[in-house]
User: Fold Hydroxymethylpyrimidine/phosphomethylpyrimidine kinase from Anoxybacillus flavithermus.
Amino acid sequence: MVYKALTIAGSDSGGGAGIQADLKTFHQLHVFGMSAITAVTAQNTLGVQGVYPLPLEAIEKQMDSVAVDLPPDAVKTGMLFNEEIIELVARKIKQYGWVRVVVDPVMIAKGGAPLLKEEAIEAFKRHMLPLAYVLTPNIPEAEVLTNMRIETLEDRKEAAKKLHDMGVRHVVMKGGHGEGNELVDILYDGEQFYEWKSKRIDTKHTHGTGCTFAAAITAQLAKGKTIYEAVDVAKRFIHAAVEQTLQIGSGHGPTNHWAFHESEKCSHH
Ligand SMILES: Nc1ncnc2c1ncn2[C@@H]1O[C@H](COP(=O)(O)OP(=O)(O)O)[C@@H](O)[C@H]1O
Ligand SMILES: Cc1ncc(COP(=O)(O)OP(=O)(O)O)c(N)n1
Assistant:
């Protein structure tokens, strides 16, 4: 059986985040990766040098081409950039009845470049949250989406409940932006909270962590795994990818998409 996943996201020329990170992650987890590119970015480990959204027609055609011939078992969305792209992507997801949809609310690149226009945030909340089988905000993204300040673990849980009330089925809040040497990622399924704790690895090479983590969840969902199983593998995948970084580029380097496979000698999970 060949499982297939589609990423609808921006291209990162530097290869560490966006479409490139998603496809590498799908591949490492033995899922056939497909893409619909929303925007091209000129980007490297030093930052984002240019953002070029694609015409709506080009985005729609890519989604149609994949949908009619290669129906995905799971879908991930990343950089959506503006209101028009959000509306289009949401309409097409509904048209094709895609359910296992992982929405990564990409807003700002680590270097500070906006990957979602501020005026598009309301449209994102309105159109994308109700389609999210899984939403994967980091702490600053969760703050923007819920209009609340998140400092403690209790705040994170309150924000997760709010996001669930806004239509998200499963909230996976990433803890990379929290304080201290321990990272806590949480999952809320509407009833219970689950926590994944790990050591914070002391490195500046974390470009693309969010994309890679959400892509790993998507790959596992494509294979029919439960949300708990999917987050569990994704957490191990990203931990290995940050622990054994590649040390390339002179800024914030990419994570290592080979590391999980090599460290766990996994086959198909
Ligand atoms: N320094 C680090 N050491 C280990 N894991 C990390 C580190 N930074 C981020 N992660 C993990 O990478 C994933 C993405 O985290 P986060 O930084 O919160 O999101 P984003 O990349 O979207 O800003 C999470 O699972 C988080 O726990
Ligand atoms: C094209 C593109 N999409 C998404 C991102 C953001 O990725 P993320 O995983 O959050 O990593 P950082 O930008 O925070 O390093 C991106 N940079 N480019």
Residues 227-243 form the longest helix (17 residues).
